[in-house]
Amino acid sequence: MTAQDAPETASDISANPTGHRQRRLRLRPGRILGQVISIAVTLFGLLLLTFVIGRMMPVDPVRAIVGEDASPDTYMQVYRQLGLDRPLWEQFLIYVGDVLRGDFGTSIRTGRPVIEDILAVMPATIELATFAILIGAGLGITLGVVAAANKDRWPDHLIRIVSLLGHSMPIFWTGMIGLILFYAVLGWVGGSGRVSDFYLGLVEGPTGLLLIDSLLAGEMEVFRSALRHLVLPASILGYASAAYITRMTRSFMLDQLNQEYITTARVKGLSRSRTIWGHAFVNIRVQLVTIVALTYGGLLEGAVLIETVFAWPGFGQYLTNNLMIGDMSAVMTCVLLVGVIFITLNLLSDVLYRVFDPRTR
């Protein structure tokens, strides 16, 4: 190894900080280019997977359009219009070109462009998933830390039982029990849908998020109705996600509490709470970022079962309805969107890694 190849030492960097900074800046375009290539390859693989799923589904897209009683001539005309008479590689290239132009096809069920339908239903799912992850992360992280701090004592056993129940109970069953108990019997929350029928269509704002739009419009009655309808499905989803986050947080914390630096901190006289929250918890934040981000992505997939139980007009119910009738343009676009959501959340996790852990910068 020559002198030019030798790694820089701390003295080299301090002696020539300008040169070191310039070398770091020269490395950044390469890293950015690598990330761009990685994202492009991932998106291409996602497009290929979506295309294959669309062709392997046991659904005839032509019959879904023309109906079972259409004549053979009509069938073949639509078959050629959809490009199904062309080789698969050519169909795939056409599909990629349409996606790059923002053309995701037209929904058979609604007769509108699929992207317009998804943009119309996605705010409902974002609102539901965001409230659910706030509940799940706040509850799960707190309970996980408490359980680890009281390992093998009664708080730990109680929290583990509660999290096990949340992870084991079918979410559709929990949703139905919640509706019967808190809506039908006690009347504490709203029923199905995003808002009471009396307020449907009363508020149409720019965001599509009913709580925000009703506040911007000054419609407090609509806001209260929307909140009453949101709290139960969001709490059920939040409890299910909190169960998983609790288990992972407890595992991460136990690993940190067994480290030598925790013993050193206690010997130095630091309080138990400061040792736990100020030292051990700080070192698991990076790991929790990934857990919370992926959990949020799972909720954004649509929370299909809970949206079905509560007749929530969101992404999950849209996907289910179109899957039932074989609307493959809508189904393929939904699958593609789910993949893009997880790619975006992974990128966001990488950014937060650099924020929370200076060693990765």
What does this structure look like?
It is a single chain. The chain has about 350 residues and is mainly α. It has a domain at about 115-360: MetI-like (MetI-like fold), CATH 1.10.3720.10. About 75% of the residues lie in helices and about 0% in strands. The protein has 16 helices and no strands. The longest helix has about 40 residues, at about 15-55. The relative contact order is 0.12.
Topology:
Blueprint: H1 10-15, H2 17-56, H3 61-66, H4 72-81, H5 88-100, H6 114-149, H7 154-168, H8 171-185, H9 210-216, H10 220-257, H11 260-267, H12 272-280, H13 285-300, H14 304-309, H15 315-325, H16 328-356
Supply the helix-strand structural class.
mainly alpha
The average pLDDT score comes to 80
State the end-to-end CA separation. 27 Å
Radius of gyration: 26 Å
Question: What CATH first level of the domain at 115-360 would be assigned?
Answer: Mainly Alpha
Range of strand content: under 5%
Report on the biggest sheet.
none
| SSE string, helices as H and strands as E | HHHHHHHHHHHHHHHH
Supply the CATH superfamily name of the domain at 115-360: MetI-like
Count of DSSP strands: 0
Poorly predicted runs of 5 or more residues: 1-21, 23-27
Can you tell me the CATH architecture of the domain at 115-360?
Orthogonal Bundle
- The percentage helix is over 70%
Form type: globular
Query: Could you name the CATH topology of the domain at 115-360?
Result: MetI-like fold
How many helical stretches? 16
Subcellular location: Cell membrane
InterPro entries: BPD_transp_1_N, MetI-like, MetI-like_sf
GO molecular function: dipeptide transmembrane transporter activity
Membrane topology: Multi-pass membrane protein
